[in-house]
Amino acid sequence: MKTAELARREQEEAVTAREPEASGPAPAPAENVLQWQRSAGNAAVSRQLGGASKARTAARKRRVPAADQALGRMLARTADRRAGVKERDPAAEVAETEPEPEETSALETEESDELETEEAAETEAPGEERPAPVGTKATLARKPPKTKAPPTLKVEPQTKFKAPSGGRKRTDVGVGEDVTFTSNLKGSWAASGGTPAAAVTNGKKFKWRAANRAASITVTVTAGTQTKTTTMNVIEPTIITANKLSEMSFKKGEQGAGMKLRFVYQPLNVSFGNMEVKEVSGPATSITGYYLTQPAKSLWHDSGDTFTRIGKNNKDTAVDTASNGGDAKPWSDGTFEWVIPNHFKTIDEGGDGKQFTTVTQAFTLLADGTITVSKGGQSVTRSP
User: Where is the composition biased (Low complexity) (predicted)?
Assistant: First the structure.
């Protein structure tokens, strides 16, 4: 029994001695766990695993700083993205003071989109095989290939300036207005009037300047077998209104009154930004009372007869002065007026332009020296 018991114990000890070898380190799984623990930063679990060789521990210590460095770089990049200071774009500041830039028309990309769709359709199988009836020789029957109609020709006009009440996409334009026509297909362009901006008139864009006088003009583009015509209505200025900017000051006891005006040219559904205007000098009319005693030369209207540019908002770039003063005593009731012809021309024209309206500037004097000056729907009254 002693011998048998001793043999059994020796056998158990031998098995126990072999167990560490059987359950020795599993390099790949242990390394995976250690690597996961290093990423998670759980040192406690790493200590529990144990059994890692000094070589693996040293390698782990060498790799951790590299991971820390990568993490630091990632955090630094994130901080850079969060930190931001807005700076004004000098080019944008210039654009804010210039005429409206050309807007991209949807028609510029429409043709390419349709062509891509058509090409995709052509790459599809032209037909699918149909099985022949049982007992007959198999033949290949195919559906007819798919076809696509060519894109429909479209045109969109867009003016250089916004009209005060009409935007840019319009067919009513002021004399001399600049217009860009855009089509979805390349073609050949022609206009029955006005002036193309370039000698070459082929492509998807056509730049054109309206005529110098009122007209109905057709702009036509031909692309393949298709033709598209756009009718442009060229409009002249009709009337003038005035905005009062300020009233003039005079010394106490001095006779006189005056105001500063800014003229506005109608209609407002087009832009007259490529137009100039002037007042024409002339004599006084409707003279009564006090002013009948004054020499005609002193009542003459001297406008300067100088053309001034109109802004894109249809307002004159110059300021008008409407005033009268210095009438000598004794005063008495009296009136006179100037009926002032106004001419316009486009920036491409020379000469005296064309008269399109008149503006009346009227003067009314009372016996106490009070005078009223009126012009363009505005007026000012003042007593000495």
Answer: 22-31, 132-142
